[in-house]
Amino acid sequence: MAIPRLLTRCFLAFFIALSLPVYGSELLARADTRMPVIEESPADSLVVNRVLVKKGQRRLYLMNGEEIVRSYRISLGDNPEGHKLYEGDERTPEGDYTLDWRNSSSDFYKSIHISYPSALDREMAENWGLDPGGSIMIHGLPNGAGDMAFAYTGLDWTNGCIAVNNQEMDEIWQLVNDGTPIRIIP
């Protein structure tokens, strides 16, 4: 069932990508050139002391106190609604965790580990006789995505992780230190 759904999503993404050259230039021609330009601070001067994920908005925010430093469009687990209950449910956990270690050689383009499962997550899963799972990460695209990288944009395709494109993952990798708290909300 997951393969036909992924193929349908890939087809739709491919169709949209093909139609961008036709319609995209028309939209750009009509764009208001008086839009304000927001200058971004150099990454070297940014301080990130927490990460906030809003699953319903499909957004990941790098925060300095209450100030949003960066914002990214994310992909979640293939079954994104609700808190992760057990391994294989394809949900992204909700709650307060820590970004505790990183892997530059993962199956995806770089990954930063989220400290799921917490003691409470383990206890809840144990009460149901289930394994809570683990290896929940913020990561880039699958290694070898190559020319099909565009097909992942805007889709929920992970097994419960939080995914961004590879360029965004490089930026997150640079700006977020191990030990940074992360809050994931519905």
UniProtKB/TrEMBL annotation:
Pfam families: YkuD. Keywords: Cell shape, Cell wall biogenesis/degradation, Peptidoglycan synthesis. It comes from the Bacteria. InterPro entries: LD_TPept_cat_dom. Pathway: Cell wall biogenesis; peptidoglycan biosynthesis. The active site is at 139 (proton donor/acceptor), 161 (nucleophile). This is L,D-transpeptidase family protein. It comes from Marinobacter salexigens.
